[in-house]
Task: structure prediction
Amino acid sequence: MRILALSDVVADREYQPGARPDPPISLVLSCGDLPYEYLDYVATRLGAPLYGVHGNHDMPPERSDDPETRVWWNGIDLHARIRNIEGVLVAGLAGSPRYSDGPYQFSESDLRWAVLRMIPTLVFNKLRRGRWLDVLVTHAPPRGIHDHPDRAHRGFETLRWFLWVFRPRYHLHGHCHVYDGRTVTRTRFHDTVVLNAYGARELDLDAG
Result:
């Protein structure tokens, strides 16, 4: 399975019509802060299913001019949910640490409650499939991995704990913009490879 992860800025190469990549993209995952129209366009052009989480700058779907946006987003929203997508177990957690009154900003306690909602399914996965999770999709990074010292861009300690306990193969995040090619965007933490998906990033993953 080839995964295309998107986050924070519209990636020009994904917006242009033309030949599909080879091998083709099997799944599009959004790490947040992207226009709904862009996400729908990319997934439609690639002919791939789309799932994602909200970023701290996202507009709530109920405020969209299109009343169908809310229904559409509810069908692809990964926040505090786990989905089995062609044998790949994918979960998501939205938003950033709270620094104002934005709709997708959370405290550590908020994020812990969201994780608690997923634990029954995580346990089921471990018992049934021998692993908790394959891919975690978030907007913010874990504390101390790819994050920044300012209040708005620090990582979540809860995400660091999640990786330590549930050991997904990959953790895809956004939120921390990359302007320098020397910036570290790939880090191994225990059994998990943490990837900053700023812009667009492709990932090959064996299902099952």
Q: What stands out?
A: The first helix runs from residue 12 to 15. The mean pLDDT is 93.
